[in-house]
């Protein structure tokens, strides 16, 4: 019983010392197509998944294009285009703030999906279908879903033989 009481007190103190931010605004430094730094906080946009910075995709003709860098640059341009305001809704397992963000009232996650530079993981299915039909951004050719790309990178990091095989051109 005492242990439960102590844990409850610790949980209350932790929540009090590290409260969830409500609204955030300010100057942002973009990390990739769905996350950025706002002051000392790391923020991840809710509802989308964008290619990772090092990720490449295929054009309609099969050539490579740096979709991760293009997504990052587009998010950066959106954020620089006006006043950024975010509504925080919690934190993820990496302690990043999960938020819906707008620039001058425009939902920037929605804009990323409309431009075809992020996939919807939540409320932007209609926008994704439109981008796909228009063959915009990621939808112009072939691409690996960002989650699958991250998982593959994690697998390669944990398996030293995969790196050697890849380096030797056998993978």
From TrEMBL:
TNase-like domain segment(s): 29-141
GO molecular function: endonuclease activity
Protein's UniProt name: Endonuclease YncB, thermonuclease family
Keyword Nuclease: yes
Superkingdom as given in the UniProt entry: Bacteria
Keywords, alphabetical: Endonuclease, Hydrolase, Nuclease
Lineage of source species: Bacteria, Pseudomonadati, Pseudomonadota, Alphaproteobacteria, Hyphomicrobiales
Pfam families: SNase
Keyword check for Ligase: no
Record organism: Devosia limi DSM 17137
């Amino acid at each position: 019983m005492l242990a439960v009481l102590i844990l409850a007190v610790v949980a209350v103190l932790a929540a009090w010392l590290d409260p969830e931010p409500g609204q955030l605004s300010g100057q942002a430094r973009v990390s990739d197509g769905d996350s950025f730094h706002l002051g000392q906080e790391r923020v991840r946009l809710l509802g989308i998944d964008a290619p990772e910075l090092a990720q490449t995709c295929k054009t309609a003709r099969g050539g490579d294009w740096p979709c991760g860098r293009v997504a990052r640059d587009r998010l950066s341009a959106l954020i620089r285009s006006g006043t950024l305001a975010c509504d925080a809704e919690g934190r993820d397992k990496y302690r990043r703030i999960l938020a819906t963000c707008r620039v001058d009232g425009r939902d920037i996650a929605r804009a990323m999906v409309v431009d075809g530079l992020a996939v919807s993981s939540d409320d932007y299915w209609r926008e994704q279908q439109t981008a796909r039909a228009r063959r915009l951004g990621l939808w112009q050719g072939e691409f690996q879903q960002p989650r699958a790309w991250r998982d593959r990178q994690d697998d390669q990091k944990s398996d030293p033989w995969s790196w050697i095989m890849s380096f030797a051109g056998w993978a």
